[in-house]
Amino acid sequence: MRILITGASGLLGINLALEAAKDHTVFGQVNEHLLHTQKFTTLQADLLAPRSIERLLEQTQPDWVIHCAALANLEACEADPQRARQLNSEIPGLLAEHVARGGARLLHVSTDAVFDGSRGDYSETDEPNPLSVYAQTKLEGERLAETANPNTLVARVNLFGWSLSGRRSLGEFFFYNLQAGRQVMGFTDVFFCPMLANDLAYIFLSMLAKGLRGLYHVVGSECVSKYEFGLRIAHRFELDERLITPVSIEEADLKAPRSPKLTLRIDKLARDLGEAIPNLSTGLERFYTLYQQGYPQHLRQLGL
Prior knowledge:
This protein is of the alpha/beta class.
């Protein structure tokens, strides 16, 4: 298959592009962060520029499009809601419209943060209630994409993994700080269901290969607190867990509101894929193995 991945320099985009390139012809769109790799074709394009999306689709002639590009920094979204709306809401709608015309399949990447986290255990039929500008614009993006192209596959995710900068995931945050002997906070009252980006890539490709459409929760099968997640990182890498201070989210000085219980149901995904969804233990084991193999250093070299 010919696959176009937007946001190919991001945490999900780079891991997805490298995993997909093992079996497919991959084109990775980037904006400012150029990539130097032989594994897939990198295309520089500003998605907000006139006719940029049309040109990308004409250039690549994809069978599948996986839209990872977004303004994902919560504080940046609060500071510039207009830009957040352009990137997280308007672009998905435009992309879905143009992809539909060309006959390709679109997978739009959304977020678990569309829920307010007041109770957890959310299914795809539960009504979202986004708290932050980021979450609001991502939900709007879901809806605009589905309206423009009813065949769109929407995946609400939460992930961790190795990135180009080493600063894009909670897994990296805990690992690099603990490795340096720095004290960090771990929220005991914020729960999530993280999936390793490399496992998420496999799931995405399986969903597209099966022809799935509509809304799916695509998160790990194990839900933990951010504090527990930090402890699990410390244990696997044999780092000092005493450096992690258990705190409440209320003690943190964060501009954008966070949802406390983002536990999502994945029974629909498991049923329609016909296979078990990766859990945190297997994800952390692969996260560790990738580190041992020098994968983080390899990623950094791609961005030099």
